[in-house]
Model the fold of this input.
Amino acid sequence: MDPRPVGVFDSGLGGASVLREALTLLPHENYIYYGDNLNAPYGDKTEAEITALTFRCADELVSRGVKAILIACNTATATCIRQIREKLEVPVVSVEPAIKPACAADGTGKVLMMATLATTKLGRYLELQSRMPDPGRVINVPCPGLVDRIERNVLADDAFDDLFDRFLSPYHGMEIDGIVLGCTHYIFIRGAIARYAAAHFKGACRFYDGNAATVRQLARVLEEKGLSNDAGSARAEFCTSGDEAVYRPIFNSLLSR
Ligand code: DGL
Done:
């Protein structure tokens, strides 16, 4: 039994959607969340910039005594998960776009994978896509601008149509079997995406995200390495590189959504 907390990291507040899942599925652990809100969004930055920022955040969590790190950021995973794993001594579990279950689902339509610009063009994600039975079924949709709004606590169902029109209008009228939320921020605007999808696409438009599978993987890794805790109380400490007075209330409200 290891009472040390698990470190959860995201460029900003999107990782709260993964932490929320962890608090439910692993309530006997404690957590430290680190949001790099000062530098969000990562998705429009270069590979070198994202790598440097991710390393800094991981070091910050390690210096706070975490026993494992949960990277709750698809962009950081796509950019530098291999280097992070090589460098850190603690185990690292990370989220990535859930295209596998989406592609396994029946249907003759397409799968839309919505993510940051960086995720959609980086090797690690493209390699994952190439391993799907029919990679051409997946349409990658980079969505710059969504994260900036979500970081400002804009979440209303009708607050994103201008941006959706920009990214999604080429696919209007298409049969869409699944929509992959390939950025942890997007979980919080699922309602807005569903509303837009109902108005513009045909097909089932079932949603997929990698959060629950990632937390189950965290449970397996903690168990295997003898790091589990059965006496924690789902305590979650919030840390940010940004203005805490601004981000803490938004973080708390996202956790309880
Ligand atoms: N929440 C993040 C992700 O899952 C990153 C968003 C960003 O900073 O651009 O990709």
Notes: The beta strands are 6-10, 31-35, 68-71, 92-94, 110-115, 138-142, 176-181, 206-208, 236-240. The first helix runs from residue 16 to 25. The domain at 99-208 is CATH 3.40.50.1860 (Rossmann fold). The chain has a mean pLDDT of 97.
